[in-house]
């Protein structure tokens, strides 16, 4: 056991540390693009390997906490001193899925030749910023105190703004400013929640706070939860706090949009799961969460139906399917949590894949507008890369989307309340409408002749990219139309395979999610791991 624990201590810092070191090195090597790319790929691959080992160790030995600097777990009257990193089965699973996505997206971006600005600006900031984003995502899943989680969110915010405004076009700057304003409001609310929580409990360590909140009056505890839910709900794009997302994501380059859609909202969902199960168990806000989940599903998918641009359409489906995860969390049952965890993993992979495919569509046809697209089925490879994740998102059996939705519906029937049955009906309607939206994209972009598209003759001109003399992509006035580089296709294929693997090994993965949900439901596992014994 001591060997295993020493492995834990060494590995738990690597998913955050390796990308940070890589970010520093890529900044230093800004004039050597090949070295930058190599360092980035090695750093994220190392984080992925470390995450896989943590997944194995948590499965065999349970939750582990590392008190950085060797501070005593008992600390002072204000709880443990220093930074605490905690890895359990939920955080390990999120790390593995996230690093898979981050690695595939950066390979896709390298294949596309992402750089900042135009060919007259050869020094890239994309890769250092991307590595900073990676470190923020990984640290958020490992944070054992509220302030460290806040720092992770701020790292994500700073890196996201740079990535969102790459190329500095008017649309991207406008979307970036809107994104930053909303994120700053979320951060201020979160910071206020941290201050209120510290005033009520005298600590920011999650484990110590979970114990002390038991002595806080119910009204104060509910108010604290509400403040944190608003902050996390903005990050997760839960309705009515989701209106910023469809206007922000579609303007960014395809790799940036893909990683934002796949991961950033899930960090907010993860924070909601952690707060709901560890800090505020008992279901005081479950009715509110159930209603928010229902409205998120329906408003999101109805918004998707009204869109003519595939990126905006997928952004609305992204919002819609966050509702499924909130549904599972709000049921406050082990089976509901299991379904929510499985669905989070499924949605990260599938949603990222679809946005990567949209990047291929733009590269192949010069546009992502359904009014300009048609005849893409002439490329069987592109058609297959879209069709598989589209069916998965729509919940067609036997894909993982169907499995996750069935699990959530079954958890709702076990709950048996009127509100749970309303959510079940809403989830079925949302699934059918999602399938309709995906079928609409298929028939218009792939099946119909391009000549029948209302603006088919304009598709060759787009605002997305310009190939410079080195073969890299810069952000100019025309799209590089008609080709799909191998460097973009292969990572997309890997993502498609990863989504299918979630279906093939659905049994073991769902069992793992169920075990993770069991540990979340039993707070004593987390508390004893962090504080060193029963409290």
Automatic annotation (TrEMBL):
The entry's keywords: Cell membrane, Membrane, Transmembrane, Transmembrane helix
Give the stretches traversing the membrane. 6-27, 39-57, 90-111, 123-143, 149-167, 179-201, 221-242, 285-306, 313-335, 341-361, 373-391, 418-439, 488-510
Q: Keyword check for Nucleotide-binding, yes or no.
A: no
Q: Could you tell me which InterPro entries the record lists for this protein?
A: CPA3_Na-H_Antiporter_D, NADH_UbQ_OxRdtase, ND/Mrp_TM
NADH:quinone oxidoreductase/Mrp antiporter transmembrane domain residues are 143-430
Question: Where does it localize?
Answer: Cell membrane; Membrane
Q: What's the name of the protein?
A: Multicomponent Na+:H+ antiporter subunit D
What is the protein's species of origin? Williamsia serinedens
Lineage, uppermost ranks? Bacteria, Bacillati, Actinomycetota, Actinomycetes, Mycobacteriales
């Amino acid at each position: 056991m001591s060997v295993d624990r020493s492995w834990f201590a060494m590995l738990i810092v690597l998913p955050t540390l390796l990308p940070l070191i890589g970010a520093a090195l890529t900044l230093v090597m800004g004039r050597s693009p090949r070295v930058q790319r190599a360092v980035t790929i090695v750093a994220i691959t190392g984080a992925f390997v470390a995450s896989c080992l943590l997944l194995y160790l948590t499965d065999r030995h349970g939750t582990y906490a590392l008190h950085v600097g060797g501070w005593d777990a008992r600390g002072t009257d204000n709880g443990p001193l220093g930074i605490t990193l905690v890895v359990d089965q939920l955080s390990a699973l999120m790390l593995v899925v996230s690093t898979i996505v981050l690695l595939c997206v950066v390979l896709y971006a390298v294949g596309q030749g992402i750089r900042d600005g135009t060919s007259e600006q050869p020094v890239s900031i994309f890769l250092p910023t991307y590595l900073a984003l990676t470190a923020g995502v990984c640290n958020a899943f490992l944070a054992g105190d509220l302030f460290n989680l806040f720092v992770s969110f701020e790292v994500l915010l700073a890196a996201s703004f740079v990535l969102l405004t790459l190329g500095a076009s008017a649309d991207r700057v406008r979307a970036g400013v809107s994104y930053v304003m909303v994120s700053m409001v979320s951060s201020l609310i979160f910071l206020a929640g941290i201050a209120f929580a510290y005033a009520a409990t005298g600590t920011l360590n999650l484990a110590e706070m979970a114990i002390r909140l038991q002595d806080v009056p119910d009204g104060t505890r509910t108010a604290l939860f509400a403040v944190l839910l608003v902050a996390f709900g903005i990050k997760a794009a839960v309705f009515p706090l989701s209106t910023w997302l469809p206007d922000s994501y579609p303007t960014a380059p395809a790799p940036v949009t893909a990683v934002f859609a796949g991961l950033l909202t899930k960090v907010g969902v993860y924070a909601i799961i952690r707060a709901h199960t560890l800090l505020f168990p008992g279901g005081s806000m479950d009715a509110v969460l159930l209603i928010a989940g229902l409205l998120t599903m329906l408003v999101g998918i109805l918004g998707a139906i009204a869109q003519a641009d595939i990126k905006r359409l997928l952004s609305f489906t992204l919002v819609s399917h966050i509702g499924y995860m909130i549904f599972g969390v709000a049921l406050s049952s082990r089976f509901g949590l299991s379904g929510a965890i499985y669905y989070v993993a499924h949605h990260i992979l599938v949603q990222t894949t679809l946005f990567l495919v949209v990047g291929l569509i733009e590269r192949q046809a010069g546009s992502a507008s359904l009014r300009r697209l048609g005849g893409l089925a002439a490329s069987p490879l592109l058609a297959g890369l879209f069709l598989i994740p589209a069916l998965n998102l729509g919940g067609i059996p036997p894909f993982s989307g169907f499995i996750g939705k069935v699990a959530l519906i079954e958890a709702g029937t076990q709950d048996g309340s009127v509100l749970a049955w309303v959510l079940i009906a809403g989830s079925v309607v949302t699934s059918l409408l999602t399938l309709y939206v995906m079928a609409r994209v298929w028939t218009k972009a792939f099946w119909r002749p391009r000549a029948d598209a209302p603006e088919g003759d304009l598709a060759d001109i787009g605002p997305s990219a310009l190939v410079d003399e080195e073969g890299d992509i810069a952000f100019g006035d025309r799209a590089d139309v008609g080709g799909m580089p191998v460097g973009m296709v292969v990572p997309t294929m890997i993502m498609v395979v990863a989504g299918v693997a979630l279906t093939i090994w659905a049994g073991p993965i769902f069992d793992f999610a169920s075990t993770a949900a069991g540990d979340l439901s039993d707070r004593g596992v987390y508390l004893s791991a962090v504080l060193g014994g029963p409290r």
